[in-house]
Fold this protein.
Amino acid sequence: MSIAQTFESAFDFEKFIAVRFDDLGFSVKVNNKQNEPGYDFLAIKGQRIIAVQVKNYKNKVSIKQVTKFRDYMDRSNIKEGAIISSKGFSVPAIASIAAEKVKNFHMGHLCENKITWDYLSQSINKKAAKQKSSHYISVFTAKGGVGKTVVSAHLAGAFAISGYKVSMVDGDPEENLFRLTGENASVPNSRTGQSNRVKVSKISDWDATMLDEESITIFDCSPSFERNSLNLLKKTESFIIPTSLSPLEIGNKAEVLLKTIDKIRGCNTTASIFIILNKYYIPNRKEQQRYYDIKTIISGLGDYKCLMIDPEKKVSIRESKLLRNWGTESDLAFKTVAGRCYPRDDFLRLTEYLMEHLNIS
Ligand SMILES: Nc1ncnc2c1ncn2[C@@H]1O[C@H](COP(=O)(O)OP(=O)(O)O)[C@@H](O)[C@H]1O
Ligand SMILES: [Mg+2]
């Protein structure tokens, strides 16, 4: 007789599973609308809310049941869900989720009083969750007007669209970002039609202890290195250096980039550094050569954690009217025009690139 059969009612089984989530460090909120389809309880930890459905059936959970719950999640805008079954899942049900590498969805069954995971898209484990902490990204170039503020805000927006809890800190005493967005930047998402919000703090109001686990903090720096918070620069795990290839912006021999990297390394020897080309357009042959020359100069530093992102093969932020004119409202420049939005595409690609290169969970 399997352990699940010893439960007298579906409710007992549900309670048992709820306690397992409690063991994993979640607080549990039971859904009182019992007759509605959907979840049985919410498991809550920090910003993370998992809608959990438990199934105490005679048979294994089928693809159809999984799909039904995922459809319900989409309709109800639920960000993370789990099904816990007393009898496990059919092999195709697990394969269908695993093949798509579905994010934010978990499938588990009860085995010897513990949940055994058949599919886990991210850790639910108490220990692993504790190890996570905010990832600090600083956007810094030792030069004004290169796009630090534009890149900070839109990178934060792209992380928010990708499901991350992001906050921004305006580190520039000029407060360009804060004056523009106020305490929240709104991130239009044309796919869902709903806006996300990204919190923006002034450096004077910012307090590291306010941050939740698993969040990303993006710091929009002042071009004058000394005016930034040394504490934050030291905490930074990834620096993003936005720049164009223009000799006026970075100097004929990339002097501005070299100075930027030198300043960063002066206080932080371990962070990853990514140079991203901003205001990018299709280059002519001479401009292409300039890119290679500058890349050679940067590689010549021998700093293996400092990468110049290839604008053609990887990512660049294209020159766009939307970004040039951004600033009349706190909405980010992510609205589609005729179904397209270059800034949105570019910043999502940058997010994807960073995820591949960094230890962001
Ligand atoms: N990819 C881009 N396409 C078009 N204009 C841009 C782009 N990136 C930045 N800009 C414009 O360049 C100017 C400087 O940007 P900003 O983010 O304020 O630079 P910084 O913070 O480095 O001083 C702004 O007018 C901004 O709209
Ligand atoms: Mg700025």
Summary: The chain has two domains: 3-128, 132-357. The radius of gyration is 24 Å.
